[in-house]
C-alpha cells in the first residue's frame, strides 16, 4: 500500500514542535537486556514532550498487488532485500519498546504500512499488541493505524482490528474502472471488488477507516467521478488524496540528489508528464490537472458535504487559514517527524526518502529516539523550510503551502532557482480557491 506520501490518519503527527501539554517523563522500560540501545535524549522542560512516529514495513516492499504507480516495490532491488522480507521478533520488540520510551507524551501512535503489511499475518500483529501492552507506561494511550489494500481483510482480520481499535487507511482510487486500471493483483487480475468488500466489512464492524486515493495522471481528469464515488459509496467519510509525483529516476536516486542544473524550469515541456525528457514518470499527475481536480472536488465538497465528509487536505487548509497548525507534514513549514522503518531494522528519514543516502541508522545499534532527533534528521526537517526558493518566500499562499513536500521540488523557477515544487501551478490554484471561500467558511463556522 506504499502509495501515499503523507497519509496521516492521525492528524498533526508531523507537527514540527512537540506540542503536548504533558510533563516530560523519563521513560524506562520494565525490563532491559544490557545490550539494548539506550535513549540518551535529554529531559525537556515541563509541558514539552518528544513526539514522532514511524511508518513500519513489516514485510518490506512485498505486496500482493502490482500497482502501476507504486513508488515502493522497487525498494527490494535498491536496498538488496531478501525475497521473503519479514521483520523478525527482535526488531519488532526493539521498535515497540524504543517508540514507547522515546515518545514522552501521553499518546504513542504506531503505523503499519508496506508493501502490504497484512502479508505479515495476524500472529505478527497479535505480537504487536502484546508488546505494546508490555511496554506501555501507566496512563499512556497507544494507537495503531494500518494502511492496507484490503485484499486480505477477511472477518478474522476485521475482528482483530475492531478489538484493538486500529484505525485503517484503505486504498481505493475511485470507481471500478479508475481503480482497476492502476491497481491490479500480481497475477494481473482486478482488485476493486476485494477493496470494496474490505470497506464493507470495516464499516459493518464499526472499524474507523479512511479511504486513501492516489491522484494520478488519468484520475486527476475525473474529479467528480472519483470524489462522489468515494464520498458516497465507499462507506467512509474520511478521504485522503495523494498526488502521484514520481521523478523519472525514483527507483535509483533520492529526490535530493538531483543536480540543480538538471531540473527543468517551471512552464517548460520537461516540467510536465508525457514529454520524452520529462522530469517525472508518465503516470505522474500534471500540475494543472491536479489543481483542477482539487478545485472541482473542493466546490462539490463545500456545496454538499462540508462537515460530513472529512478531506484531509481541505480540513488542513481551513485549519491553517484560521491560524491553527497544519494537519499534514506536507503543509507544515518543517517536517522530519514521520520516519520509516524497514523490516531489517534500518530507520530512514521519511517514507519517501528510503534511500541509502537517508538511512539514519539501525535500531539494534542506536535507539530510535536518538535517531529521530539526531542532527541529520533535524537538518532534514529544517531543510523543508530553509531551502524554499524565493518564489515560495514571496508567495501569497506560503502559509498554506510551505512548498509542499521536498520530494516534489523538482523544478527551477523562471529565474533559474532550484527547489520549486512540481505541483506549484496546481497548489496555487487550490490555495486561491480556499482564499476565495474563506469568508463564507468563517461565517459557517461562526469564526
Ligand atoms: S519529506 Fe517531509 S513533507 Fe514530505 S512526506 Fe516526508 S515528512 Fe512529509
Ligand atoms: S504555491 Fe508554489 S510558490 Fe507558493 S508556496 Fe506553494 S510551491 Fe511555493
Report on the structure:
It contains 14 helices and twelve strands. It has helices at 75-79, 89-102, 122-135, 155-163, 176-182, 192-205, 223-233, 287-305, 312-321, 368-372, 375-386, 390-393, 398-401, 424-445, and strands spanning 53-56, 107-112, 141-148, 167-171, 209-215, 238-243, 310-311, 338-341, 346-348, 359-362, 411-412, 418-420. The chain has a ten-stranded mixed β-sheet.
Write out key terms for the chains shown.
ten-stranded mixed β-sheet, disordered N terminus, 447 residues, alpha/beta, binds iron/sulfur cluster, two-stranded antiparallel ribbon
What ions, cofactors and ligands are bound?
iron/sulfur cluster
Report the count of strand segments.
Answer: 12
Going by helix content, strand content and strand pairing, the class is alpha/beta
Helix tally equals 14
Strand order of the largest sheet: 7-6-5-4-3-2-1-8-9-10
**Which sequence of SSEs, written as H and E, runs from N to C?**
EHHEHEHEHHEHEHEHEEEHHHHEEH
Give the distance, in angstroms, between the N- and C-terminal Cα atoms: 38 Å
Average predicted confidence as pLDDT: 92
Helix content: 25-40%
The Rg value, from CA coordinates, equals: 21 Å
Strand content: 5-15%
- Morphology: globular
Low-confidence stretches: 1-30
**What's the story with the biggest beta sheet?**
10 strands, mixed
Amino acid at each position: 500500500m506504499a502509495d501515499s506520501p503523507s497519509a496521516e490518519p492521525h492528524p498533526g503527527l508531523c507537527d514540527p514542535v512537540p506540542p503536548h501539554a504533558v510533563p516530560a517523563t523519563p521513560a524506562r522500560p520494565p525490563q532491559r537486556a544490557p545490550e539494548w540501545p539506550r535513549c540518551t535524549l535529554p529531559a525537556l522542560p515541563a509541558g514539552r514532550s518528544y513526539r514522532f512516529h514511524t511508518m513500519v514495513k513489516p514485510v518490506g516492499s512485498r505486496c500482493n498487488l502490482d500497482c502501476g504507480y507504486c513508488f515502493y516495490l522497487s525498494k527490494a532491488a535498491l536496498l538488496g532485500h531478501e525475497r521473503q522480507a519479514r521483520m523478525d521478533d527482535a526488531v519488532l520488540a526493539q521498535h515497540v519498546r524504543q517508540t514507547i520510551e522515546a515518545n514522552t507524551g501521553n499518546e504513542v501512535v504506531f503505523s503499519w504500512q508496506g508493501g502490504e503489511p497484512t502479508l505479515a499475518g495476524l500472529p505478527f500483529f497479535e505480537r504487536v499488541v502484546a508488546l505494546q501492552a508490555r511496554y506501555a507506561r501507566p496512563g499512556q494511550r497507544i494507537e495503531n493505524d494500518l494502511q492496507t489494500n484490503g485484499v486480505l481483510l477477511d472477518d478474522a482480520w476485521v475482528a482483530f482490528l475492531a478489538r484493538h481499535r486500529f484505525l485503517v487507511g484503505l486504498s481505493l482510487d475511485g470507481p471500478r474502472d479508475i481503480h482497476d486500471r492502476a491497481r491490479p493483483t500480481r497475477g494481473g487480475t482486478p482488485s476493486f471488488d476485494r477493496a470494496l468488500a474490505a470497506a464493507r466489512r470495516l464499516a459493518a464492524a464499526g472499524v474507523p477507516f479512511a479511504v486513501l486515493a492516489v491522484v494520478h495522471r488519468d484520475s486527476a481528469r475525473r474529479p467528480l467521478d472519483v470524489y462522489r464515488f468515494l464520498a458516497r459509496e465507499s462507506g467512509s467519510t474520511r478521504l485522503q488524496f495523494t498526488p502521484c509525483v514520481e521523478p523519472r529516476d525514483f527507483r535509483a536516486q533520492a529526490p535530493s540528489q538531483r543536480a540543480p542544473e538538471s531540473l527543468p524550469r517551471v512552464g517548460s515541456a520537461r516540467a510536465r508528464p508525457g514529454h520524452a525528457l520529462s522530469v517525472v514518470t508518465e503516470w505522474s499527475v500534471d500540475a494543472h490537472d491536479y489543481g483542477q481536480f482539487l478545485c472541482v472536488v473542493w466546490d462539490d465538497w463545500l456545496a454538499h458535504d462540508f462537515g460530513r465528509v472529512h478531506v484531509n487536505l481541505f480540513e488542513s487548509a481551513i485549519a491553517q487559514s484560521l491560524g491553527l497548525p497544519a494537519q499534514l507534514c506536507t503543509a507544515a513549514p518543517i517536517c522530519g517527524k514521520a520516519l520509516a522503518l524497514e523490516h531489517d531494522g534500518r530507520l530512514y528519514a521519511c517514507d519517501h526518502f528510503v534511500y541509502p543516502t537517508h538511512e539514519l541508522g539501525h535500531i539494534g545499534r542506536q535507539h530510535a529516539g536518538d535517531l529521530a532527533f539526531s542532527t541529520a534528521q533535524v537538518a532534514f526537517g529544517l531543510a523543508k523550510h530553509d531551502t524554499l526558493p524565493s518564489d515560495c518566500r514571496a508567495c501569497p499562499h506560503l502559509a498554506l503551502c510551505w512548498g509542499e513536500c521536498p520530494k516534489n521540488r523538482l523544478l527551477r523557477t523562471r529565474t533559474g532557482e532550484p527547489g520549486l515544487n512540481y505541483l506549484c501551478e496546481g497548489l496555487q490554484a487550490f490555495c486561491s480557491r480556499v482564499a476565495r471561500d474563506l469568508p463564507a467558511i468563517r461565517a459557517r463556522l461562526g469564526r
